[in-house]
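Researcher: Sequence recovery benchmark, item below. Answer with residues only.
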């Protein structure tokens, strides 16, 4: 009844539209402009879809506004123009996507010399991204007709909005045949290779960072889409190039041949870590034979490319780029671990874990030797739980692999090396126990911590992870002969100390952790959760974490240190599984 009698008052916008000489600028001052546009106000859409009006809207989002005004006022109208152009109204989409002169105005933004205004770049990217989704065939045809389009996008890759544009072209094109045609076009333009070329010491840091992030996103998006497609669909050409040994070798050459910089090593390593994130589709963990074969092929390519550069990674662990002293909540850290060494640790852990799908025993041996240096860093950087977790992964993977390994009687060709009999390569667990002195280091660290706490000092930050490593050693001794033999070959006094440690200190610690965790869960589910704890709040928080606290802590780390969710998502699982044995990291940075 209300709408039948039209009792609502006429808006100021309607009054303006009735004027014969109304301007776009006048309309943009009206608060309900965007609302009326999305509501399909016929008179408004007729006005906005005029050639002169569309041209003015495009000029607003592609041309630097006059200087001298406040930043908010300068970009008020360009922002409104972008919202109108991307309001997903059919009339506007048809007009903009169907007329080449209008697309030429939009495209002209890319032809400007760098650097682009980042806010205008976001308006441009949002507008053309919307057209790629809504007017796909017309816009793809237009862009393919522009010679040098990809070069212009990569020229401005230091502006993050250009990353969004590239990802739109890869992930938002439908139907499938057109998507495959677009991927083939991008591959013919050597998109993957050109992005790898940008991860180079000769490029500025922002350009390297954005190129690396774009490559990582392409890998993840392409794998996800490949998993969703039918079996008889064509392979993704961009993904095939990025997963190839040739491409990985080029990336590693950029990082280590000639001048080396910390930024290039970090951003290049991020790409390698993403390549090792094999997604495994299947039902209830059952892997398809073809999927398993694909994984082994990818991992083998990466391992073959990485093997010649393991010496460079080893040297980085020993002699990292210089870092300025870092102030932490426990004092000044004169030589921080550094982002570079943290990424090396993550890569080593990923390579060792990936080895379970491969037959590169020689490389596995080299990785185990690298692990000895990581173990030294584990004990040196007492409070860096990000590092502690990576070392724990390495140790667990080596011990697990050694317990299950069956040595095939075949040889191995390592580049130009002669055939290396596998039986001549030391068992990885022997390296861990003898060269790395794993058992002795566990005992020494545990005893030093007990002494420190007895004198009133703080419990060392790695003790939760050290407990888990010790339990892993004990567990794998029960599964296979190698760990048992290694422990049996320890000096007699050390062997006795280990047996006493396992029977007493470790058993008691496990008992306390189990009791504390169960007690906490019982209290959390009871009706008197609100009663005051006899312990300080800080201590209670340090001892155990609820799911909500885990989520908040993970989010805080991501926000504070600039890592995306995928990059450190593994730590959430660790926080959940450690329970009361987990030691909260000191809030400096993962690389501190």
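Model:
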């Amino acid at each position: 009844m209300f709408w039948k009698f039209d009792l609502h008052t006429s808006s100021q916008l309607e009054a303006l539209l009735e004027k014969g000489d109304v301007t776009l600028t006048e309309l943009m001052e009206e608060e309900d402009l965007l609302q009326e546009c999305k509501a399909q106000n016929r008179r408004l859409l007729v006005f906005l879809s005029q050639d002169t009006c569309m041209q003015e809207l495009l000029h607003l989002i592609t041309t630097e506004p006059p200087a001298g005004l406040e930043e908010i006022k300068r970009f008020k109208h360009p922002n409104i123009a972008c919202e109108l152009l991307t309001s997903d109204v059919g009339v506007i989409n048809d007009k903009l996507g169907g007329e080449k002169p209008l697309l030429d105005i939009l495209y002209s933004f890319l032809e400007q010399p760098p650097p682009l205004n980042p806010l205008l770049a976001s308006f441009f990217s949002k507008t053309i991204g919307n057209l790629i989704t809504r007017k796909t065939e017309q816009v793809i045809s237009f862009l393919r007709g522009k010679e040098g389009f990809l070069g212009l996008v990569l020229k401005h890759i230091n502006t993050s909005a250009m990353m969004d544009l590239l990802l739109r072209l890869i992930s938002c094109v439908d139907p499938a045949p057109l998507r495959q045609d677009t991927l083939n076009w991008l591959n013919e333009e050597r998109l993957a290779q050109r992005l790898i070329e940008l991860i180079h010491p000769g490029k500025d840091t922002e350009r390297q960072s954005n190129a690396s992030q774009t490559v990582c996103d392409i890998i993840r998006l392409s794998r996800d889409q490949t998993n969703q497609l039918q079996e008889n669909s064509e392979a993704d050409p961009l993904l095939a190039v990025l997963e190839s040994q040739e491409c990985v070798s080029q990336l590693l050459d950029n990082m280590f041949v000639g001048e080396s910089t910390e930024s290039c090593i970090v951003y290049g390593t991020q790409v390698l870590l993403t390549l090792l994130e094999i997604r495994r589709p299947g039902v209830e963990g059952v892997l398809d034979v073809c999927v398993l074969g694909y994984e082994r092929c990818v991992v083998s390519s990466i391992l073959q490319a990485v093997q010649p550069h393991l010496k460079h990674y080893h040297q980085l662990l020993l002699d990292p780029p210089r870092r300025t002293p870092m102030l932490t909540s426990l004092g000044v850290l004169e030589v921080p671990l550094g982002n570079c060494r943290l990424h090396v640790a993550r890569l080593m852990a990923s390579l060792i874990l990936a080895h379970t799908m491969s037959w590169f025993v020689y490389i596995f041996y080299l990785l185990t030797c690298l692990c000895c240096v990581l173990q030294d860093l584990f004990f040196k950087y007492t409070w860096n739980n990000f590092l502690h977790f990576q070392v724990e992964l390495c140790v667990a993977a080596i011990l697990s692999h050694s317990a299950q390994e069956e040595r095939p009687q075949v040889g191995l060709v390592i580049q130009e090396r002669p055939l290396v009999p596998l039986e001549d390569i030391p068992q990885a667990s022997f390296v861990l126990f003898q060269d790395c002195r794993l058992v002795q280091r566990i005992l020494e660290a545990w005893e030093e911590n007990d002494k420190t706490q007895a004198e009133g000092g703080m419990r060392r930050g790695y003790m939760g992870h050290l407990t888990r490593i010790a339990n892993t050693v004990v567990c794998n001794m029960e599964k296979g002969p190698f760990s048992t033999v290694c422990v049996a070959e320890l000096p007699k006094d050390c062997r006795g100390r280990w047996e006493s440690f396992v029977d007493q200190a470790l058993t008691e610690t496990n008992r306390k952790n189990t009791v504390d965790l169960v007690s906490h869960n019982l209290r959390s589910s009871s009706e008197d959760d609100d009663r005051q704890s006899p312990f300080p709040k800080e201590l209670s928080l340090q001892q155990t974490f609820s799911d909500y606290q885990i989520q908040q802590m993970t989010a805080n780390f991501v926000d504070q240190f600039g890592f995306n969710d995928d990059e450190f998502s593994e730590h959430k699982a660790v926080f959940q599984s450690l329970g009361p044995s987990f030691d909260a990291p000191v809030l400096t940075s993962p690389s501190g």
